[in-house]
Amino acid sequence: MNDMPACPDCASEFTYDDGLQYVCPECGHEWSKEATSGEDDAPVIRDANGNVLADGDTVTVIKDLKIKGSSSVVKVGTKVKNIRLVDGVHDIDCKIDGIGAMKLKSAFIKKV
Where in the numbering of this chain does the Protein YjdM N-terminal domain appear (predicted)? Predict the structure, then answer.
């Protein structure tokens, strides 16, 4: 019976122990044993400067962002209050004054 964790990338059951890390022979992914001990923890989302974000934070946009399907732009320095963190590529749900509900990437914002 294999008590090794499944590969987090490809979900392969054929992982093996290689000292301080696990290795998946199917996709070649390697990860530390410490990374598997905290599987129940939520992923940490960080802003462009590396600060950890949380629900309810206030952030500032660091780059002009074109709104898809519109001629509007979210300007640099726009303050966004009361963000909500979600899973996905666009990991922040928010409401911007004058524009409405939006999803943003954490790479384009900084914590105030």
Answer: 4-32
The pair of three-digit structure tokens given for residue 5, joined into one six-digit string? 């964790």
pLDDT at 67 over 60: yes
What is the predicted pLDDT for the residue at 9? 84
Tokens 């943003």 belong to which residue? 104
Query: What homologous superfamily does CATH list for 58-111?
Result: SH3 Domains (2.30.30.40)
Contact criterion met (CB below 8 Å) for 67 and 99: yes
Predicted TM-score (pTM) of this structure: 0.62
Judged against a pLDDT cut of 60, whether residue 36 lies above it is answered with no
Neighbour count for residue 17 (Cβ, 10 Å): 11
CA distance 78 to 80: 6
